[in-house]
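Case study 2.
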Amino acid sequence: MEHLTQKQIEDYSQHRLAAVDLLAVGDHVAECEVCRAQLDAGMNVDAAFFAMHGEALGQESGAHLTTGQTAAYVDRNLTGESLQEADDHLAACEQCTFAVEDLRAFRNQIAPSLDREYRPAAVSSPGAAKESWFARLGSLFRVAPIPAFGSAAVAVLLLAFVAWMIWRTPKEKQPEVVVVAPSPVSQPSPPSEPLVSPQPAPASVVAQLNDGGRVLTLDQEGKLSGADDLPPAYKDLVTKALRTQRIERSSQLQGLSRRSSSLMSSDNQKDQFSLLAPVGDVLMSDRPAFRWTTLGGATGYVVEVYDPQFKLVASSPELTSASWTTTFPRGNVYSWQVKALKDGQAITAPRPPAPQAKFRIIDQARANELARAKRTHASSHLTLALLYADAGLLKEAEQELRMVQRSNPNSDLARKLLRQVQALQK
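Prediction:
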């Protein structure tokens, strides 16, 4: 093939090529730098749109997640500061959030068919590094992250690429076995005895739990049974929990101070009242319900909510009840306080030396993933508990683990996991 025509470049950029033409153009672009540069220029229209969109919203440009970081985030391979930076960036970047959602949805769709890795015929090259299959698929696109409004076409393109790799995989030729029957030799027949084939000894069971009509079993070799319907990432969570018998503290809880005592208020007993919730919590809903105890003699209350820079982002009208609800943007950490109006004065809780009352609302990408998991795997209470705990949603994780314990009343492991989640809330 000569260089691509302008129409081919436009059709490729707009995902209008037929499957056969798409594969041919893809092979040519992989080898031709000239056509690849022209294709980049054509596809950068979406990038320009998101740049203008980000400028209009006051978002920083040039700091998006790379393809590798997006793949690692979806694969749950980011930890520590890298994970926190990705979470904070996704909270403010609509472009990267769309990319994470598209890649995660695509992974969950095709993951069951990728129990083994498919690739084109291998060409040996010294020092060739192995890449994750997400990273290899992502490398087909020169514009990252993937625009949300092109997600359907991109998914079709990715599926076509996977089919192409399977087609290119060399079929292993089965060796022909020729059986030559020896000439019969008459010998006296020994007494007939039943032949018993030796059976391999079963691997010892490390952990076992009943979970929503199934039995999850982990043996000494690390093989998980009873979770065939779960995607690979969820299987890894279950396997790790059964192997270590631990639930780790989520990075989403970092920076949220827990209450130092039963009351987050002043030391003056006469003017004492407390904040009840949310305090030190990660929330699924973007509409938190603020609750506090009443102060004797108070005629009203005013709730104030601040961002991490202590900028006031919400304030309630004067309330006569000890509760208030409003909506906030997702993916942020907030602190809040209540002013009780009494005898013409405002008494604030909490106030030093009591710590600030903080909470976090999970980002939209993770909220969508958890909603899909609850729809698809509603019967697997252990899976949902581990997903909630990983997101920092400890109250939701505790509810699911109570269901696991109910199905396993005599299991030390079920009680142990429940106690760990309860301890994380203190």
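Residues 56-61, 115-154, 170-181, 261-267 have pLDDT under 50 and may be disordered.
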